[in-house]
Amino acid sequence: MEEYIETCKTIFETYTSISYDSTNNAHVVCVSEMAKCHKNRENNEGLTSFSGSGISESYESSYPKYIIMMLEKFRKKVRLL
Fold first, then answer.
1. pLDDT digits (tens, 9 = 90+) for 61-75
2. What per-residue confidence (pLDDT) applies to 52?
3. Domain range spanning residue 55?
4. Contacts of residue 8, Cβ cutoff 8 Å, sequence gap at least 6
5. How many other CB atoms are found less than 10 A from the CB of residue 14?
6. Of 27, 37, 56, 59, which sits most exposed with the smallest number of CB within 10 A?
7. Over the stretch 39-67, which tens digit does the pLDDT of each residue have?
8. Measured between alpha carbons, how far is 43 from 73 in angstroms, rounded to an integer?
9. Taking 80 as the threshold, does the pLDDT of residue 32 lie above it?
10. What's the whole-model pTM score?
11. Pick from 76, 57, 70, 62: which is nearest to 17 by CA?
């Protein structure tokens, strides 16, 4: 599971433009939920479809809506700062 968490930390940081903080419970929950999706769909090539400008359609469809909403919430906070 650790390799999925490391991958998801990188995706989280790239997509939201904020550093992952292991003391922030919201960050930990978001990344662990993302990792669960990766583990459950490890043979799904769509999970590797990520761009710096955002989550591509195939990538977005691989995550449940609640994870996309969590990522968007973090991303919006960064834009407002």
1. 567 888 888 888 888
2. 52
3. 2-80
4. 31, 32, 34, 35, 38
5. 11
6. 56
7. 877 655 554 555 555 555 455 556 788 88
8. 28
9. yes
10. 0.69
11. 76
| % the chain with pLDDT above 70 | 69
The mean predicted confidence, pLDDT, of the chain is: 78
Residue whose pair of structure tokens reads 């292991």 in the numeric block:
22
- Residue 53: its H or E element: none
The sign of the torsion formed by the CA atoms of 70, 72, 37, 32 equals negative
Residue 74, both tokens = 């973090």
User: Which of these, 37, 22, 58, lies nearest to 13 by C-alpha position?
Assistant: 22
- Alpha helices for 1-81 (secondary structure H): 2-16, 25-40, 57-62, 65-80
CA atoms within 13 Å, Cβ hemisphere of 60: 13
4/33 Cα distance (integer angstroms): 10
Nearest-angstrom CA–CA distance, 59 and 26? 21
